[in-house]
Amino acid sequence: MSDLDEIVQLVTIAGERHIHPDFSTYVDDVDMADIRKLYEDMVVVRRLDAEATALQRQGQLGLWAPLLGQEAAQIGSARALEADDFAFPSYREHAVAYCRGVQLKELMPFWRGTSLSGWDPNKYNMATPAIIIGAQTLHAAGYGMGVNFDGANSAVITYFGDGATSQGDVAEAMGFAASFAAPVVFFCQNNQWAISEPVTLQTKAQISHRGHGYGMPTVRVDGNDVLAVLAVTRAALELAREGGGPTFIEAVTYRRGPHTTSDDPTRYRTAEDEAEWIRRDPIERIRLLLESAGALSEGDVKAIGDHADAAAAELRRGCLELEDPPAMSIFDDAYAEPHSLIDAERREYAAYLDTLDA
Amino acid sequence: MSAAAPARVPLGKAVNAGLRKALADDDKVILMGEDIGKLGGVFRITDGLQAEFGDKRVIDTPLAESGIIGTAVGLAFRGYRPVCEIQFDGFIYPAFDQIVSQVAKLHHRTAGAVKMPITIRVPFGGGIGAVEHHSESPEGYFAATAGLRVVSCSNAADAYTMIQQAIASDDPVLFFEPKRRYWEKGEADFAALDAAEAYPLHKARVVRPGTDVTLLVYGPLVTTGLQAAKVAAEEGRSIEVVDLRSISPLDMDTIADSVRRTGRLVIAHEAPVFMGVGAEIAARVSTECFYHLEAPIRRVGGFAIPYPPAKLEQHFLPDVDRILDAVDHTFTD
Ligand SMILES: Cc1ncc(C[n+]2csc(CCOP(=O)(O)OP(=O)(O)O)c2C)c(N)n1
């Protein structure tokens, strides 16, 4: 694949198309209507993210991890997936979940604290949020090994941050995936920060070099360019399906909001830095591209805005409709089969709750 | 001595003051962890310390728990006294291998030639409405590992002195901080508190005398235990509340002494009861105090389930009612 340090870009921040010798062909079939779809996806998930952040501020969610600024990295990569591919995310991949078809109301229970999950991973071929940094990359490697053992030709993608690349688990995942030629795309969203720690604290080299050390092809892509992300992810997935093993993608992007709604980024980064990345906004450049091609009418903008508002309303409704689960449900699903200790504790706690009612 | 009442400070601020004192007293003390520098830690417990002592003493580490503890081992070899912050209880497991296989064993393995004066600070426990992995009580795993000392503070004055005592210890200490009590204020006169003279790190303390039943608690549940004792007193029952403070080693003298006086024992902790810290204490008390016990020992704690989602955590965490229910049982069993 491409040179280690080169950054793949297909659309400039001014909305102009670039030809890339290796990757443009992967999006040859993508016409203006498709690009408008990608634009719509990004507008909708940005709106959803804002709504969820507002819900947290209003006390309806315990926490939220905003994805503002990372729309292109998530939409571009997730729209490259086939239905039978499997995604192992961290906790910020709401846009990926959206693309996988996860119901909006299913995004909320985890953050509202009514459930530890929210959706059935097998239904959408996407695991629920992984909080332990990097853990999911090993699961992806193992899933990919299973795909190979089955002789199947689906692929796996795992999402993680720049900070996660410091974890042993991520190193081990890359080792396994490379050694067993597992069909895994390691998709690192280098959003420049791990809470307060800059990416330079995690590595002196470029993040993309991490994969190179394990003998896998690596690509560094402009993570705010949805078309470029789509192209490089398609290329990596295709290589994986053809038995070419894992690829490491570094999507260079920026987390524009706080790490989570509990974070205070003013303590560690500058307004200039933030302003610079507003300039590189992933949605704006696609808007410019579409407009200059005459592919975005005022009517389109209005329709997309309405769609986004409707989605946000649905998200809010889904959140507010979530009731606290019944107390005794805490004993459900700790084990798949009956367990005498759980049975005893369930009985005892039920009896205790009865005494409170009495 | 001034006659003014000692200042009331939040527990978290007391840990901060204790760390500041330890850094000032010994230049071999260094702090390391994720986000502890500019941000001051996600709970702000290290707030201002990097600005004061520089980034060679207060070190933001890469995002790697095994790395934090493993490099602390190397620093200890080199004569440093690392104080590592694990951001949340549930994130200690990536470092578990280094802690139990290396930190705990190196002194023994080297026949005493190498010391591991490493303090591992862990904000632990639930009750803050967090997402998964942010509310756990893993102290039992570490107490089950020989070579480690395990303590938990419950109030501002103890937090200030105990953290300094932990850092001064030549053994590795797991220092569990009750995160939901970080903002709870207590009396702590830092100018008057001297860690070397203070109540010993490994002694339990009777925090409220009583005559009818002993309630043994530590960390976040000390406050809950004191509330329970207050309610019980209104109903005419006298609970003696003992703050365990040290989980390993156990101060069996203070515990047994209390149980011999009251004849009854309830142990409460947030970690699951099954195979937990309370089980060990109950077994020892039943051996040492068998003929003084008026009733079976009762334990109150988490269930044998993964920590539940935030909206259900009140069922998992021992509260005043569940503690009093257990107390009642010791009179009716
Ligand atoms: C093992 C572990 N250690 C620490 C944390 C606390 N934590 C949550 S997110 C985070 C920063 C992650 O940064 P990065 O991997 O770059 O991903 P980003 O959040 O920027 O997307 C930290 C330290 C955790 N969840 N798991």
TrEMBL record, chain A:
Entry's Gene Ontology molecular function annotations: magnesium ion binding; oxidoreductase activity, acting on the aldehyde or oxo group of donors, disulfide as acceptor
Keyword annotations of the record: Oxidoreductase, Pyruvate, Thiamine pyrophosphate
CDD domains: TPP_E1_PDC_ADC_BCADC
Domain Dehydrogenase E1 component: 41-311
Gene Ontology BP terms: branched-chain amino acid catabolic process
Cofactor(s) listed: thiamine diphosphate
Pfam families, per the entry: E1_dh (PF00676)
Protein name: Pyruvate dehydrogenase
Origin species: Gordonia phthalatica
From TrEMBL, chain B:
Pfam families (UniProt xref): Transket_pyr, Transketolase_C
Alphabetic keyword roster: Oxidoreductase, Thiamine pyrophosphate
Signal peptide region: none
SMART domains the UniProt entry points to: Transket_pyr
SUPFAM superfamilies assigned: Thiamin diphosphate-binding fold (THDP-binding), TK C-terminal domain-like
Reactions catalysed, as given in the entry: N(6)-[(R)-lipoyl]-L-lysyl-[protein] + 3-methyl-2-oxobutanoate + H(+) = N(6)-[(R)-S(8)-2-methylpropanoyldihydrolipoyl]-L-lysyl-[protein] + CO2
Domain (Transketolase-like pyrimidine-binding): residue spans on this chain: 9-184
Requisite cofactors: thiamine diphosphate
GO molecular function: branched-chain 2-oxo acid dehydrogenase activity; magnesium ion binding
Enzyme Commission number(s) from the entry: 1.2.4.4
Function in brief: Component of the branched-chain alpha-ketoacid dehydrogenase (BCKADH) complex, that catalyzes the overall conversion of branched-chain alpha-ketoacids to acyl-CoA and CO(2).
PANTHER family linked: PYRUVATE DEHYDROGENASE E1 COMPONENT BETA SUBUNIT, PYRUVATE DEHYDROGENASE E1 COMPONENT SUBUNIT BETA
Quaternary structure and interacting proteins, as annotated: Heteromer of E1 alpha (BkdA) and beta (BkdB) subunits. Part of the BCKADH complex, consisting of multiple copies of BkdA/BkdB (E1), BkdC (E2) and Lpd (E3).
Protein's name according to its UniProt entry: 3-methyl-2-oxobutanoate dehydrogenase subunit beta
Organism, as annotated: Gordonia phthalatica
